[in-house]
Structure formats: structure tokens, C-alpha cells
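Chain entry —
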Amino acid sequence: MKLIIAIIRENQLDQVRIALVEAGISRITVNNVSGHGRQLQQEEIYRGQRVVPNLVPNIRLEIAVNDDFVKPTVDTILKASTPNESGMIGSGKIFVLPLEEVVRLRTGETGPDAI
């Protein structure tokens, strides 16, 4: 079992979610997050003051999958979230982490059956 965490741009959420559902991956958790990567800081005017925002709004997807679904899930996210061939900075990241245990609260099922 693995936990896949993907940080994507806000405007990519719908296309990634639809692609995941079409690939048979329908159980996802979505959070609004903010972060800072390698992208260049752009000045903005806020109440007449020039400011450089430190954090960029993004979306964090969390998807618990059985081992057989890791590659299809990662490939689907990559395909649906790639903006263009130029590899736009700030497009996000995908992390794949091991899951030790999963318990479904409603039924008490554990392990791969709970996913």
C-alpha cells in the first residue's frame, strides 16, 4: 500500500480529478495549500504597497492505493497536469510514500481491503 501526495496548480484540479476517475481511481482527498518552490517571485501591489508574496496557492491531492495502482495513478496525474513541453516552473510534485496500515472506520476492515 502506498500514499500518493501530489501538489498541483489550482487550475489543474478539474482535469486531474476527471483523469483519475476515468482511470478508475475515485477515492481522493483534496486540500488547499500554499507553498514556495523555485518559481520567480513577482511583485504585486497591495493597498498601494509593493509586496512579494512568499507563498503560492496550490492543491494537495492525497490518494491511498494498493501497490498495483501506484504506476497508473502517478502516470495519470503526470499526463493530466503537464502544462506544456516547456516544463513550466511551479507545476508541482508527486510523492509516493509507504503506508503501514489502513483501517476503514465504518467496517473495521484493514490493509488493502480498506482501500
In short: The chain has one domain: 2-114. The chain has a mean pLDDT of 86. Helices lie at 13-22, 70-81.
